[in-house]
Amino acid sequence: MDESVVVSPDWVATRLEEPGVRIVDVRDPWEYDGIGHVPGAVSVPFDSYRDESDVDRGTLPGPAAFGELLSGVGIAPDDTVVAYDDTHGVFAARFVLTALEYGHDDVRLLDGDYSAWNRAHETTTDEPDLEPTAYEPDPLAREESPLVGLEAVEDALARDALFVDTREEHEFAEAHLPGAVRFDWREVVDDETRRLKSGGELEDVLAAYGISRDREIVLYCNTARRISHTYVVLRALGYDDVAFYEGSLTEWLANDGEVETGLD
């Protein structure tokens, strides 16, 4: 597992006092305040870094809004940022994807979640002292974005790319992109440890669905939350040809895209 993408609780625990290492808690504020959090973590709730307008609900918040958000919690562009939640990392993965898209070079996902951290490491309810920064996102910093739009998805369908749908079975049965395979994003998580399965186990799980490094892969769900987790896991495993359909099925249906139904 590539530590530039996903890091263990022990990795975080040994670096809590290092300058430039910032921990981001994306749970609800009441969880951060009332249940406790990783020492030194700042609160950046999930709803704060997605577009909540009626026009484009659930998608990226825009660089200006994201920059203002990170400035307020004292994060600088050259910081090493590690994000976590208490839902196996699915909400934190969305933060990772957002930060990467807006040009943050070093952002990682905590392997596991708050519950996994709490089993072996101390927590606190103390809030860190924050010194606001002047964070300026740089969306053009990435040489190539994994995000693709409607036209690119149509082209990928014509090329017979592998479309991976990470939604629930009933959602998939109701409507999915032609030829898509359903892959429950939670299959990569060990229910007992709440952490990701071992590298070998992950490869076996992915192979069972035909998800391999020699395929062009396009991920989608409804509003791009669940595919964030799968995207981060594939990056950590070294998959290179992975596209992220930000509009997902919501946009596809709104544009009368062709769909299939059922589980076959």
Brief characterization of the structure:
The protein is of the alpha/beta class.
- Percent helix, as a range, is 25-40%
CATH superfamily of the largest domain: Rhodanese-like domain
Q: Helical stretch count?
A: 10
The fraction of residues in strands falls at 5-15%
Number of domains: 2
What's the β-strand tally? 10
- Main pleated sheet: 5 strands, parallel
**Dominant shape:** globular
Q: From N to C, what is the helix and strand string?
A: EHEHEHEHEHEHEHEHEHEH
CATH A-level architecture of the largest domain? 3-Layer(aba) Sandwich
What's the level 1 CATH class of the largest domain? Alpha Beta
Distance between the termini: 32 Å
Uncertain residue ranges: none
Q: What would the CATH topology of the largest domain be?
A: Oxidized Rhodanese, domain 1
Key terms:
transferase, 31% helix, 5-stranded parallel β-sheet, 264 residues, 2 domains, Oxidized Rhodanese, domain 1, alpha/beta, thiosulfate-cyanide sulfurtransferase activity
What is this structure's SSE topology?
Elements: E1 6-7, H1 9-13, E2 21-25, H2 29-35, E3 42-43, H3 63-72, E4 80-84, H4 90-101, E5 107-110, H5 114-118, E6 147-148, H6 150-158, E7 162-165, H7 169-174, E8 181-182, H8 199-207, E9 217-220, H9 226-236, E10 242-245, H10 248-254
Helix pairs in contact: 4-9
Report what the structure shows.
With 264 residues, the chain is of the alpha/beta class. The protein has two domains: 6-141, Rhodanese-like domain (Oxidized Rhodanese, domain 1); 147-254, Rhodanese-like domain (Oxidized Rhodanese, domain 1), CATH 3.40.250.10. It contains ten helices and ten strands. It has helices spanning 9-13, 29-35, 63-72, 90-101, 114-118, 150-158, 169-174, 199-207, 226-236, 248-254, and strands spanning 6-7, 21-25, 42-43, 80-84, 107-110, 147-148, 162-165, 181-182, 217-220, 242-245. The radius of gyration is 18 Å and the shape is globular. The two termini are 32 Å apart.
